[in-house]
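Need tokens for this chain, all 274 residues.
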Amino acid sequence: MELFRKIRYEREITMTYLAALILAVIEGITEFLPVSSTGHMIIASTFMGISENPLTKNFEIVIQLGAILSVLVIYWRKFLTSFRFYLKLGVAFLPAAIAGFILNDYIDCLLSNIWVVIVSLFLGGIILIFVDKWFKNAGCTEEQEMTWFQGFKIGCFQCIAMVPGVSRSASTIIGGMVVGLNRKNAAEFSFFLAVPTMLGASAKKLMDSHKTIQADDALILLFGSLVAFIVALFAIKSFITFLQRYGFKWFGYYRIGIGVVLAIAVLVLKTKSQ
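Here are the structure tokens for all 274 residues:
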């Protein structure tokens, strides 16, 4: 990462509204796609020279609140069904809550490593290319009732997404298919599980850093959350339609492609800096 430190020191390290807009659009589009929203924001912030800005680190977590609000708006009826729904979400959320508390400092270190993102994008892409062939009921669209234990196992899969570039959406959707859900139901439960997970992550980040957030910073955080919310409203509906029609393979090709392009870009920049 020495290369990117040199780039940052040569540029003014500030979070502008334009940078916030770019990151928020990326978050809104990628949060619920199996391509890693965090990985894409790390890539964008690194090349904009703001990845080590404390506000950027807060921004990348907090604006996820805007994206998950879109889930509440689109699926509001589901969140008013029964108390059992929330209990199942709680059981599924528990593994990530425990792992996140224990591994928080280690995860923060990984967030600044571009090569972790590259490797995760590439390996995750390979898995997504073949995942539809591994599960025979993947293309079914009938509603399925998920058990408590299935929810817990999906929650364990979510822990893998703590590695930048893995994708929380990909890990939980694949986890859902592993325990017997079809693509549609696995994707929708992944959306639901994002609500407590991202709320918890954002709340912890705000508690840890609230003393360093200035008034201008708060406005940028609110702006980014609003943009992410609006973009995510369209992204969720489009993703479900695309997933039912084409499956995961195109997301796999995309991940591999962007991983290769990013690796080449990093190596070229490193060569030029020597």
